[in-house]
Write a structure and sequence with these properties.
The strands form two sheets. This protein has an eight-stranded parallel beta barrel with strand order 1-4-5-6-7-8-9-10, surrounded by five helices. It has a two-stranded antiparallel sheet with strand order 2-3. The protein has a single domain, classed as Alpha-Beta Barrel (TIM Barrel). Helix content is 45%, strand content 16%. Strand 9, helix 11 and strand 10 form a beta-alpha-beta unit. It has 13 helices and ten strands. With 275 residues, it is an alpha/beta fold. Helix 4 runs parallel beside helix 13 and helix 11 packs across helix 13.
């Protein structure tokens, strides 16, 4: 089977170089500096929002994926993120990869003034340039994927993200990637989707939960997030018992006509289970 992740990263490298020819890194640095100064008093912490939330749900805005094709081609960033917040989402994840996921940085820029909850830029980040972009459009956190980076790159990008006021969600998929976790990352996510094959299995989070807790134990330990393949409230109850406090859910909501309403019912069903 073709390795989808390798194809995505190869395209991402080309995409970033083309973007740098249009807007230089120095120009982005200057813009980011202005944004940081203007927003110094308005920091939104995704980690704190998830820790304080009764649901911990990170609702995702995405139009398509390499494995499913179009999920919601007509999805509007002017509508769905705000409907997620109104329904009770703790945070938002917005896909900004255009070729493979139908997203764009404009989606974050559009949603930012319409919501107060934190926004995660979800993309395949391999260059500081993308962190600067995230800062400028109004993201509060970025995703770093262990499968795309070396441990050294991950550490460097984490430090650079923090300098820009961005939190980091480090994504791993297997126990072999536990070594990527360092004391600086704010959140650690377990992707239940294999990025090589895009096969999803939510049991992946449970398989490495104990090792993950041991690797992140400490006074300033990162918050644990389970990503992908979560389709029912019962699974969230099990994941919470295993130590997870954030739950990233996209397709379950986005494949319906009204994602916000679907989230609202999902949360209501969760409350019934908890009671």
């Amino acid at each position: 089977m073709k390795d989808i992740l390798s194809e995505i990263i190869a395209h991402k490298q080309t995409e970033i170089e083309l973007q740098k020819q249009t807007v230089s890194p120095e120009q982005l640095q200057e813009q980011a500096g202005i944004i940081i100064r203007e927003n110094a008093a308005h920091h939104r912490s995704m980690k704190q929002a998830l820790a304080a939330s009764s649901t911990g749900i990170i609702s995702e805005f995405k139009r398509c994926s390499p494995s499913k094709g179009w999920i919601n081609e007509a999805a509007q960033a002017e509508e769905i993120p705000a409907s997620y917040e109104a329904a009770g989402a703790a945070a938002l994840s917005i896909l900004t990869d255009e070729k493979f996921f139908g997203g764009t940085l404009r989606d974050i820029r559009t949603a930012r003034p319409l919501v107060r909850i934190p926004i995660l830029r979800k993309d395949f980040i391999i260059d500081e340039y993308q962190l600067l972009q995230a800062c400028i459009v109004g993201a509060d956190a970025v995703l770093l994927i262990a499968a795309c980076l070396s441990p050294e790159q991950c550490s460097t990008l984490t430090a650079q993200a923090h300098e820009l006021g961005l939190e980091v969600l480090l994504e791993i998929h297997s126990p072999s990637e536990l070594s990527y976790i360092n004391k600086e990352v704010d959140m650690v996510g377990v992707n239940n989707r294999n990025l090589g094959s895009f096969v999803t299995d939510v049991e992946n989070s449970f398989r490495i939960a104990r090792q993950l807790r041991e690797a992140t134990h400490g006074p300033a330990s990162p918050l644990l997030v389970s990503e992908s393949g979560i389709s029912d409230p019962e699974t969230i109850c099990r994941l919470r018992a295993a130590g997870f406090r954030g739950f990233l859910i996209g397709e379950t909501f986005m494949k319906t006509a009204t994602p916000g309403e679907t989230l609202k019912k999902f949360i209501q069903d969760s409350l019934l289970i908890n009671n």
